[in-house]
Specification:
With 541 residues, the protein is α+β, with helices and mostly antiparallel strands. It has three domains: 26 residues, no CATH class; 329 residues, Outer membrane efflux proteins (OEP) (Up-down Bundle), CATH 1.20.1600; 110 residues, no CATH class. The protein is built from 15 helices and eleven strands. The longest helix is centred in the C-terminal third of the chain and has 68 residues.
């Protein structure tokens, strides 16, 4: 763009003016699809073979939860509600739009500037032995513009009305001037690379805000799913503890009856009563956990309607262990190196640092400008004639070089050194973050393997504990066991039941975690969001 301006012919002023008006019309739509967050029609691609989705989010749009009554939701509906209504996300959505406003602000440096002036002048003139004054109004109008090539130019037109208060020397009442000036930076400030560096940095800041938003959305989706399963787990706890309390109460009733019949000693009643108290205490804690988890889930999804905190939640998705065969860990690590929002953000910061070096290197150069000024002044009895007069006019022209060199340019040197060190720091930060990400992914991968094994192991333990309770209860009825042993067996069964459902929930949360760690959670859930494309660094980085 700048080269085209420099190659213009005698119509340089008009061409440059129109081109700059085009630049000044740059506009960024805050509603750009890049900032869209929600379901997408396209299926995720380039994901490891174990990619799984808890369902199709599109189906949740067709039948949204009601604004009144119990909130019956699936995991997909909970996610979509959070994407639409979560208050924290509403706040974060504005960050890219705020960042976008800095781009036209930086571009405004190249906008043409219109200037105007009105005044009244008093000029005391002396001609020969007689003195007289020329008084009158004056006006001036012009346009100035700075181009990305480092070129400044402008056109100014002015006129003065000469009212005579003494013996006139001529009949000229108007003096009109047209002037053109242009300055081209030859060293400091030369070229579009340095003059557009701030604009490019502002654009990078927009991309950074988009990756930040993507990371936030990804974390939000993970929180919604994990809280959803925690709520399901708390409900299951209540169910298990309620059943165990009923069982302990039946055992206490049976113990009391057998004590009355003389089959058991009075001391057996204390053990049975203690077990009932323990089960009731566990049930109270489970209900409290459910109530707290409900508040967290309601805040995350923030459904429409009145009485938010009093809404009942009915889960339509139950925690079941999905059948997934994991790939090797390396594809997950490779995917994380492409899609992790924080890593892409770090790469953008490095690119921003490169532009900062361009700016600070420019500050080390001396200032050398080529300037040209051309003007013409005409005199006549009317304003129109003063502009078109051919006999009564004068020309002025000035061309030259302007040079400036600080004796000690310590400020610019310090800025340049700081920019170089910051770029090196950014590069090392990328390497460090890449290593941390690999550790996170590998740890999450190991957690999935552990969780899978735990699901199988806890199911087997629960079956054995059920058999143990059956045997111990039968022995108690035959008088070959005690209430304490039966209570211990029942307690072990409750613990195994809790461990089994906890293992399933942990497995589901582990899947969510590895997808979050590798940066693919939104893709796997069919959610579109900004910052999807990986940031590419130059070769040899």
């Amino acid at each position: 763009m700048g080269i085209a301006w420099l190659r213009s012919d005698k119509n340089l002023l008009l061409v440059s003016f129109l081109a700059c008006l085009g630049c000044s019309c740059a506009h960024i739509d805050a509603r750009s699809p890049k900032n869209y967050i929600g379901p997408k029609a396209a299926e995720p691609n380039s994901l490891p073979a174990d990619s799984s989705r808890a369902g199709n989010p599109q189906s949740a749009i067709k039948n949204p939860p009601s604004d009144t009554g119990p909130l019956r939701i699936t995991t997909e509906q909970a996610t979509l509600l959070a994407l639409e209504n979560n208050r924290s996300l509403v706040v974060e959505r504005l960050n890219p739009q705020i960042a976008q406003t800095f781009v036209p602000e930086r571009l405004s440096l190249f906008d043409p500037v219109l200037m105007g002036q009105l005044g009244y002048g008093w000029n005391s003139l002396t001609q020969g032995p007689q003195d007289f004054d020329r008084n009158g109004p004056s006006a001036a109008v012009g346009v100035q513009e700075f181009l990305p090539t480092g070129t400044s130019f402008g056109v100014t037109g002015s006129t003065s009305v000469l009212a005579l208060t003494g013996p006139p020397t001529n009949n000229d009442d108007y003096a009109s001037t047209i002037a053109f000036n242009a300055t081209q930076s030859l060293l400091r400030g030369f070229g579009s690379a340095v003059n557009l560096a701030s604009v490019d940095q502002a654009k990078i800041d927009v991309e950074i805000s988009q990756y930040e938003l993507r990371g936030f959305v990804q974390t939000l989706v993970a929180q919604v799913e994990e809280t959803y399963w925690d709520y399901a787990l708390a409900e299951r706890w209540i169910e298990i503890y309620s059943q165990s309390l009923e069982l302990a109460q039946r055992q206490l009733t049976e113990t009391r009856e057998r004590i009355k019949l003389g089959d058991l000693a009075q001391t057996e009643q204390s053990a049975a009563e203690a077990e009932v108290a323990l089960r009731r205490e566990a049930l109270i804690n489970a209900r409290s956990t459910l109530a707290k988890t409900k508040l967290v889930l309601l805040r995350l999804v923030n459904p429409l309607g009145a009485n938010l905190w009093d809404r009942e939640i009915v889960l339509a998705s139950l925690p079941t262990s999905p059948s997934i065969t994991l790939d090797e860990v390396e594809p997950h690590v490779a995917l994380a190196m492409q899609m992790r929002p924080d890593l892409n953000q770090a790469r953008l910061l490095w690119q921003r640092g490169e532009l900062e070096i361009v700016k600070t290197r420019n500050g080390l150069l001396p200032k050398l400008d080529l300037f040209v000024t051309l003007g013409r002044t005409g005199y006549a009895e009317s304003f129109g004639k003063s502009i078109t007069a051919s006999d009564d006019y004068g020309y002025n022209a000035l061309a030259g070089l302007a040079f400036e060199l600080p004796v000690r340019n310590r400020e610019a040197e310090s800025r340049h050194l700081r920019a170089i060190l910051s770029r090196q720091q950014a590069k090392e930060a990328i390497a460090n973050l890449s290593q941390l990400i690999e550790v996170d992914v590998r740890t999450a991968y190991l957690e999935i393997a552990r969780s899978q094994e735990q699901v199988v192991a806890t199911a087997a333990t629960r079956r054995l504990q059920e058999e143990k309770v059956r045997v111990e209860t039968e022995k108690f009825r035959l008088g070959k066991s005690t209430s304490l042993l039966v209570a211990q067996a029942q307690r072990d069964l409750v613990s195994s039941q809790i461990d089994e459902v906890q293992a399933v929930v942990n497995y589901l949360k582990a899947l969510v975690e590895i997808y979050r760690q590798e940066g693919s959670l939104l893709e796997r859930r069919g959610i579109a969001g900004p910052g999807r494309e990986p940031v590419q660094l130059p070769d040899g980085f």
